[in-house]
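Hey,
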Amino acid sequence: MVETADSERRRAERSSAGSGQQEGTGGLWDSVKKAAFVIGSGILFLAAFGNSLTWHLQKFWGASGDFWQNLWTKVYLAFEGHDAALFFLGTMLVPTSAFWVLNGLLLLVDTSGKPSFITRYRIQEDKNSPVGSSFFMNTVSF
């Protein structure tokens, strides 16, 4: 009896000494099963989400009555089918005008110093605040 208790105690000490290892058999197989469950559940969730999103977007775009197609047809007809003009204006004029409109607001903040809730996020707070008119004109002019 004493010998059995002693051997069980030694066996418990040996198993606790290797605490970095997994106990029991099939530790790797259990890990593979858990990983397969997690990855499989994720793939199933993403597939269901994608299908649901596609369904909702089809309902939304279908309800708009081909709005985007009609708008594109009007733009295409306005250019009388000149693909090159449409390409150059669409890739140059639209992005350039969007750039200047949005950055014009930031230039307004730099020249006037108002509104103050935006000016406090400037990287160089005390430098060129507000920007001088000569410096501004040299920067903006090409």
